[in-house]
Write a structure and sequence with these properties.
Length: about 350
């Protein structure tokens, strides 16, 4: 055998030994982390159904924090942004169907898998606090004191993408559950917010539920077929992205009762509203909608204020009186509202 062949053979043998050694190390490490035992299958739920959850906190280091809190029948969302200058927040009405979907799925009994008893597994599974997604479910007792009833940290998917790793806040054990729950692991206000410009917290607005309508302070005839058609469409009109950049600036009072004076403009860097609507439904709930922008803009800013009727719960009234819903809408969507200006001109 020539020296070259002998050297090549020696290199190959050494390479194979190194590969084998690497495999043995991985097996040993896996045994150390996952206890060398087969995964244990069992049935359970992420949340005990006996608890009446009134607050949910979702957080991830790179995404920030989102708080969902129930007041009366309304789920309010609050997106919290942290920076070197401190914290700022953006409030919105959450989509109750999505929130209830989260709660129902968390309470659902399903198959789970225990994959480790040791804290050392957290890093491999992305279950440490700095790289996991945390979900806290909070309930209140009869005295109004809050209690965390489930504190979960979610990490990586398995190789099949059908299961996701998680742990609780009180034990070192690591588990896996259905990956379908991952749809709720986001702090995006755009995903959690009610999609309609006028949230359906007190029912849908239509020609049958509206008692009065004003455009820029002028009352419109509700018997006009054009108005009836508009009112039957308004409930399905949706907003775009959250206007958190605008909402977190210092807030001045919105124009009220047709007051369009320059000193009542919502923002010092915005002109007077392009359109101001006031709607009252047959049960006494009022909606004020202002649009900012012009025809050269690809999108407009919508600002919605909901004023509950006198018979609503005081806690709901306090909540809604403190909120202004700010979202961007497309030029097409604004055009639907803009038709009211032409109708108003023809009626007056």
């Amino acid at each position: 055998m020539t020296d070259e062949k002998y050297l090549a053979k020696k290199i190959i043998i050494k390479f194979k030994k190194e590969i084998l050694l690497g495999i043995l190390i991985l097996i040993y490490a896996s045994t150390f982390i996952f206890d060398g035992a087969k995964e244990k299958s069992f049935t359970s739920a992420l949340l005990n159904k006996k608890y009446d959850v009134t607050k949910i906190i979702l957080s991830a280091k790179m995404e920030g924090t989102l708080v969902l809190e129930k007041t009366g029948s309304i789920w309010k969302g609050e997106k919290i942004f942290s920076s070197d200058m401190g914290e700022k927040s953006f409030n919105f009405i959450a989509d109750s169907s999505i929130v209830e979907g989260l709660l129902n799925d968390a309470r659902k009994i399903g198959r789970m898998y225990e994959i480790s008893h040791k804290r050392e597994s957290w890093k491999m599974l992305s279950l440490e606090e700095h790289d996991s997604f945390q979900v806290k479910f909070i309930s209140k007792n009869n005295e109004g004191d809050e209690k965390i009833v489930s504190n979960l940290f979610f990490g990586k998917f398995d190789g099949t993408k059908k299961r996701i790793a998680f742990r609780t806040g009180s034990r070192p054990d690591a588990f896996q559950t259905s990956g379908g729950f991952s749809m709720y692991l986001t702090t995006s206000s755009d995903w959690w917010s009610a999609p309609e410009i006028l949230p359906k917290i007190y029912g849908e607005i239509s020609s049958k539920t509206v008692a009065s309508l004003k455009v820029n302070g002028k009352s419109l005839n509700l018997n006009d077929e054009r108005i009836m058609k508009f009112l039957d469409e308004i409930g399905s009109l949706r907003h775009g992205k959250a206007a958190a950049d605008i909402a977190m600036r210092p807030v001045c009072d919105l124009p009220r009762d047709g007051d369009m004076r320059q000193d009542s403009v919502m923002r010092p860097d915005l002109e007077m509203p392009a359109l101001f609507l006031q709607i009252e439904d047959v049960t006494g709930n009022s909606y004020e909608i202002q649009f900012y922008g012009n025809k050269d803009d690809e999108q407009y800013l919508s600002v919605v204020k909901i004023i509950p009727s006198a018979v609503k719960m005081q806690e709901e009234k306090s909540l809604l009186n403190s909120m202004k819903l700010m979202f961007y809408v497309s030029g097409w969507t604004y055009g639907k509202f803009e038709t009211l200006l032409e109708i108003s001109s023809s009626q007056h």
